[in-house]
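Format notes (please read before filing issues)

Several people have asked whether sequences and structure tokens are stored in separate files. They are not. Every record keeps both together, in the order shown below: the sequence lines, then the token lines. Line labels are part of the format and must not be stripped during preprocessing.
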Amino acid sequence: MSEKHTYISKVVAGATEAIAGLEDGMNVMFGGFGLCGIPENSITAIKAAGIKDITCISNNAGVDNFGLGLLLQTKQIKKMIASYVGENDEFERQMLSGELEVDLIPQGTLAERCRAAGAGIPAFYTPAGYGTEVAEGKEVRVFDLIVVDTGWKCFNLNTININVVVRRCFRIHTETYTLVACLNRI
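Then the structure lines:
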């Protein structure tokens, strides 16, 4: 006997349908890297719909006549959270005049913010910016963690080749802790 499964389809007919539900003042995360893989059609649909006061989360701010640059030209973006903004004259003009709020975030920190938010983690610590003007007035904590785990062919703490079975978890451990000790199994 076969069961019939009902799946929720997230496929839509076009960009206009894809942005249904977007309202003024929302936070919107735009995918892509640089100008590659950006949601061009959705950006065009947002522009046409006149949705404004958007907080954009993206690794870049587009260029003057393409990508998020189109929404900047029409002043539909209130705040930009990005890691690279260097090729957009309109972005620069709005930022320097105070028309646009800007959070410049290191690329790795931005990626981790997105990953953490998707995992339901509301906050995390990063060493980026520590000891600089960026860190002034912000909470500082010192973590000194040690993990002991098993890895394969551990030559030193900087070069670890890990068995496929433990690779995913152990790799996260090695990136997370101050000191990693592993069992040498050659």
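For reference, the curators noted about this record: The first strand starts at residue 27 and ends at 29. DSSP finds six helices and eight strands in the chain.
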